[in-house]
Specification:
Helices cover 46% and strands 12% of the residues. With 327 residues, the chain is an alpha/beta fold.
Length: 327
């Protein structure tokens, strides 16, 4: 039986604590119960915090752990839950970083859910390796850990003994992935069916929203950003846009890239995709109509851009996020 320790961080999202606990606890149990078989649990699950005291999740739910990290000398797998106030949490609970490093040296595998990747990144164990985290924290993660190859489009990354997952809901994806890794495909499928939860979601790009980085302090570029946002559906000359703002096109592109991480063209494309996503979610217009409304004449060109940014063709995106009417 695999020994799994869930490390609940301060002000965590409750789902990132409860989901892995439930997935690992039910493996070999719930499916067998439904089919009249004897239970054969695969995991011994233990919940700890840095101090071992009852804690409140972000939603107010109060949970009593089994103990503290100091009670756990060995584990096969440690799962780190999400954190919210990243700077403050890392400062107040930094002893978790040393503990993770110590148990990893003893052979423990480590998995992180959502922003829990920041805790693992602090250990240095991810340096030179791939990782993922919630798309909303991706820019912050990149700036703080440039030595880690962040893949923000991925739902899960696997470095053999270090695992990261995307947003909060990826707690289920990661847990089922690890059930498959440790117990085999059949047990994972049984767990998926028992929990009525999908397996094998590979990307979190369909869920991501374009982040308008505006805290860069460059007033000229901020002015350009705001102009593009107001006029995203127009086809305009970047030469003229640069000239209106007292710059050459080359200077505009260089400063824009440094400030936002995007070129003016990709910035405009991302705004157009965000607008198209909202219209697809409303379910009123065809994709050809949407293409025209966001400023394109060739729907095949815009389709390629849309797929590149969301990971889904427009029809799939609409099906996934449009309003559901239950009869």
């Amino acid at each position: 039986m695999k020994r799994v320790t869930i490390l609940a961080m301060q002000n965590t999202i409750a789902f990132t604590v409860i989901s892995p606990m439930d997935v690992f606890t039910q493996a070999g149990v719930m499916w067998n119960h439904f089919n009249g078989r004897e239970s054969t649990p695969y995991f011994d699950v233990n919940l700890v915090t840095t101090v071992g005291k009852p804690f409140k999740c972000l939603n107010g739910l109060r949970i009593v752990p089994n103990g503290s990290i100091h009670d756990v000398k060995e584990a096969d797998l440690i799962v780190v839950t999400s954190i919210l106030d990243i700077q403050r949490t890392l400062r107040l609970q930094y002893e978790a970083v040393d503990w993770l490093r110590e148990l990893y040296q003893k052979g423990a595998h480590i998995a992180t859910i959502c922003s829990g990747a920041f805790v693992l990144a602090e250990t240095g164990l991810l340096n030179g390796k791939t990782a993922t985290t919630h798309w909303g924290f991706a820019d912050q993660f990149k700036r703080r850990y440039p030595q880690i190859r962040l893949k923000p489009d991925r739902m899960i990354t696997d470095e053999g003994d270090l695992f990261c997952s995307g947003g909060y809901g990826a707690a289920m994806d990661l847990s089922l992935y690890l059930v498959e890794k440790y117990c085999g495909h059949e047990v994972a499928v049984q767990s998926s069916k028992s929990l009525v939860s999908d397996m094998n979601r590979l990307l979190q790009t369909p869920y991501a929203a374009f982040q308008f980085r505006k805290d860069h302090g460059n007033d000229k570029i901020l002015k350009v950003q705001e102009w593009i946002e107001r006029n995203f559906d127009r086809n305009f000359s970047y030469e003229e846009l640069a000239r209106k703002n007292g710059m050459s096109r080359r200077t505009l592109e260089r400063q824009f890239k440094a400030a936002t991480g995007e070129t003016p063209l990709t910035y405009q494309q991302s705004i157009r995709v965000e607008s198209a996503k909202r219209m697809l979610e409303e379910g009123i217009h065809s994709f050809d109509e949407i293409t025209y409304r966001v400023g394109y004449e060739d729907h095949s060109t815009f389709r390629k851009i849309f797929v590149r940014q969301t990971g889904l063709v427009p029809k799939e995106y609409r099906k996934k996020f449009q309003r559901v009417r239950v009869g």
